[in-house]
Write a structure and sequence with these properties.
- The chain is of the alpha/beta class and about 170 residues long.
- The chain contains six helices and five strands, in the order βαβαβααβαβα.
- It is about 30% helix and about 20% strand.
- A five-stranded parallel β-sheet has the order 2-1-3-4-5, sandwiched between helices.
- Strand 1, helix 1 and strand 2 form a beta-alpha-beta unit.
- The protein is globular, with a radius of gyration of 16 Å.
Length: about 170
């Protein structure tokens, strides 16, 4: 199984990173991780060049997207900042457009596990994550098989115990 893990948090070794590493440790096969904050991520210009071929942007998202296209499983991780995923992860998701508009490429059938952290201990962002799944992830044909929330995860190591337990019990059959 080929897995691509994306850490959309700007905090290296923060809660998202810790949870993604724990999840990756459970996965058999090839796992490649990307820490978006360390990479050159350019915004989509909506130039529509992808409708006739490849995206014209020469950045790290091209490499990541090539890896995602070969993957069986995609792990997407982000903290919730100001009610939304980070700009880093949103930039990557916006660039899904370069695949969805290219008639020779498809994200169809790729399984997705999400890892979401939030300082707020309530369920306030559950509807937002459901909306994101429908409008961005499932819209391009990927299948969210699991969302792991760490609620009340304000400081490093805080509020991630239940998420770590959930990861430990998780069986990944793809």
């Amino acid at each position: 199984m080929k897995t691509v893990a994306i850490v959309g948090s700007p905090r290296k070794d923060g809660n998202c990173d810790l949870l993604v590493k724990a999840l990756c440790d459970k996965i058999d096969g090839d796992v490649e991780s990307f820490f978006l904050n360390d990479l050159d991520l350019q915004f989509c210009d909506a130039c529509l060049a992808c409708q006739k071929g490849d995206c014209i942007k020469e950045d790290d998202i091209r490499n990541i997207m090539d890896k995602i296209l070969e993957a069986d499983l995609l792990i997407l991780s982000s903290p919730i900042y100001y009610g939304q995923i980070t700009g880093q992860l949103k930039t990557l998701i916006d660039r899904f457009y370069m695949v969805s508009q290219n008639p020779n490429k498809s994200l169809e059938g790729i399984k997705v596990i999400e890892v979401i952290t939030q300082a707020n201990p309530s369920d306030i962002y559950d509807d937002y994550v459901d909306f994101l799944n429908k409008t961005a992830i499932e819209f391009v044909g990927m299948d969210v098989i699991k969302t792991i929330f760490a609620k009340g995860a304000g400081d490093k190591g805080q509020g991630i115990e239940k998420a770590l337990e959930e990861i430990e019990k998780l069986e990944i059959n793809i």
